[in-house]
Amino acid sequence: MSKKNDLRKSVDFLQSKIGTAPEALIVLGSGLGEVAEELESKVCIPYKEIPHFGISTAPGHAGKLYAGKLNGKNVLCMQGRLHIYEGYSPEEASYPVRVASMLGASRLVLTCACGGVNIDYSVGELIMLKDYINMTHTGPLVGMDVSDFDTRFIDMSFSFDRDYITLARSEARKLGISLGTGVYFYMPGPQLETPAEIRAIRNLGGDLVGMSVVHEVIMARRLGMRVAGFALVTNMAAGILDIPLSEEEIFTEGRKAREVFGRLLAAFVGNMN
User: Fold this and answer.
1) 2 partner at 20 to 30 Å CA-CA among 27, 120, 141, 149?
2) Which residues fall within 8 angstroms of residue 249, CB to CB, at 6 or more apart?
3) Residue 87: count of CB within 10 angstroms of its CB
């Protein structure tokens, strides 16, 4: 299928609103959206006003696109993302990445709220993503028009840019912020995982579990974008602690981490190449 006309309309509309081409797209996950409001010279555009853009329906996702400066870099910030569990296809969930690339963004910075699978993690900890596992066998490139690309099969050996991992950890040390690394395990949701699923995820090598990120990463790598991923452990995954999980704790931990995460994100973006 081809979305070239839809993409062109989205891009033309945004170009008329933001002017300067962005260097990066930053996607802000659950509880982290307020970071977008700290941009300098910002312009805010609700998703519903952007032609052919999906509307975010997930709790805690405001559904607004911000354009502005973060630590000297021109960026786009998504206050909330699109998920498969909302009814979007993988291609639709990654549509904003294609739009940002066409606008000029060559970097993608992803943030997300995750369940901690690695028992060495703690709630409130920040983790730099170093790889992912997707066992759903779906992706945004299935059925995609490949006429604009020289190959159908893309290398995912370095899904998350190694230099960016090094940079993020270096900036975190300067700021006195603890920043680990881990493997993200994708589950489509919206139901949270069972304790048995979490045991299986740990055995397969997953450190964190979440319902986003993967389709955005795949599309970004298809487009040649450099990718960085930051995760906030908002809860320990099912079965690790003998307590039920709630949606509210995700937002509570996001609010707690906003100031620390905002400082790290600004330092990272300001120094990324």
Assistant:
1) 27
2) 234, 235
3) 10
Mutual orientation of helices 4-18 and 95-103 as an angle, nearest 10°? 60
Bridge partners, 236 (sequence order): 116
pLDDT at 1: 42
Residue whose structure tokens are 């620390």? 260
Give the span between the Cα atoms of 48 and 95, in whole angstroms.
Answer: 14
By CB neighbour count within 10 A (0-12 exposed, 13-18 middle, 19+ buried), where does 2 fall? exposed
User: What is the three-class DSSP state of 236?
Assistant: strand
Produce one character per residue of 134-167: b if its CB has 16 or more CB atoms within 10 Å, e if not. beeebbbbeebeeeeeeeeeeeeeebbbeebbeb
Residue 232 CB: number of other CB atoms within 10 A?
27
pLDDT, tens digit, 9 for 90 and up, residues 181-198: 999 999 999 998 999 999
The span from the CA of 241 to the CA of 236, in Å, is 7
Higher pLDDT, 135 or 59: 135
Note the pTM of the prediction, 2 decimals.
Answer: 0.92
Contact 219, 240 (CB under 8 A): no
DSSP-assigned beta bridge partners for residue 24: 75, 107
| Gap between the Cα atoms of 265 and 236, Å rounded | 23
